[in-house]
């Protein structure tokens, strides 16, 4: 079996149904009443986002991200919005896990990341959201993120690197990972396995010093989401991948 066939087989096994009748979409109707109570009349919309919407999801990862858009006149601070949602999900009987900009809950066997944000105005899709790690807020546009990644032509390579990340237990935020793959493969014309290998080489050679910006807000430096030590852990894992004798040592 060729390296390309091996990776394509894994990706086929890990494929996620993102169609309109996907069972995972039903989790939104399950938790929407809870979110509406928490939003107290300020809810603008709830929609799939993240890997599910971008086409970079794997079956063994988070099943769906739900972007929770609040109106621009929501009175609470972004930190209060985040923490109140965390408390609300606990009160509703879930066991929420606080992450950087999202809150993870298990709903009917599915892993769901909730991303609360407040619209900046009534016209654009620009939102402000809380960044827990930095204890600050940032402006972003999820619609821009979805378009940038889903139309990149690199979703297979991204999915392969995400599987490697998960299986090696690496702390590598998904959007940071996705943008890093795009940078690593700029103008690349190789096969799937050649491109994934090129990403590992980039992680070894250039990742530590690379400055990665949010395409929806150049003041939001995505690469600041990890410390130098955390980035070094990712680089070292890439070095081990490049030293592997077989693809089965890298991802399964």
UniProtKB/TrEMBL annotation:
Record's keyword terms, sorted: Antiviral defense, Transferase
Name of protein: Nucleotidyltransferase
Gene Ontology process terms (BP): defense response to virus
GO molecular function annotation: nucleotidyltransferase activity
Alphabetized CDD domains for the sequence: NT_2-5OAS_ClassI-CCAase
Protein source organism: Lichenicoccus roseus
InterPro entries on file: NT_2-5OAS_ClassI-CCAase, NT_sf
Source superkingdom: Bacteria
